Amino acid sequence: MNRKSSYPGSAQVEGVKKDIDRNWEAQRQKDTYKKFDRANYERYAADHVMGRNSCVVRGMCFFNLMRAAGLTRGTDLTLTAAHVQHFAGDAANKTNAAHCIPGQVLVGASSPWDIKWFMDRPLAAYQLRTAFGQTSYLPRSFNVADTAHERVAGGSGEALLRACMAVAKVEPFPRSQGVFKLPQTGDLIVVKDACRIDRPMVRNTFDQWLGWVDTAYELARNAVKENKYVEKGIDQSELLEILRLYKKFSPDPKPSDLLDRQMDEIERVFNVNAKLHD
Q: Does residue 275 have a pLDDT over 80?
């Protein structure tokens, strides 16, 4: 699939990747850092899992708000392969830009940020699109391990859809007046019928997600042991170790996106119509 950048209309994507490559190359020439080696796999796995959990929380917050806005009732959500990504990997280096979130959740057949509500709120569209496009620059083996836990029956792809559907099916909080601060000016904006995140529901669903994705990692390990999802040139033992590390690092620490201040910001960008307040 030819995926779009999660930074539409910007050269920022290649700039990020080139900065990473330049930094690694400089350290490699000084013999101070190995770009990818097994000694760093725990760090790679921990960071990637944290990114995954953070993206899932942000996605759940937005789908819960979309329920409050009447944009979905949960039953119209579907799962497909990723539509956007920050940047691509490097074939020569045997690297991939591995997506943090295990798939793309659609509303009907549309990416959620293509709905008119988000078109009128470009910062909300950007934040949601970025959550689904966030990638980690990793050895190819991590992306193969991700394919295993995403696609195995009962895997993390199904778990992602289940989590988003759960927060989009619940009866939403009643809409009420909200006051939001514009970051550019500090002016206060009154929104008469603001949508609110059901924060206990999102947090409870995230705890359930941890259990579902823990199962996904174990199911993937069993599949890899049967030589499924194993690519030529990738050691089976390496995939098993990566999946073990995912399982190890998944529960803790919890992402900051579960905190009230992060949810406050998501509510702000979701509710403030840019066209009305420019």
A: no
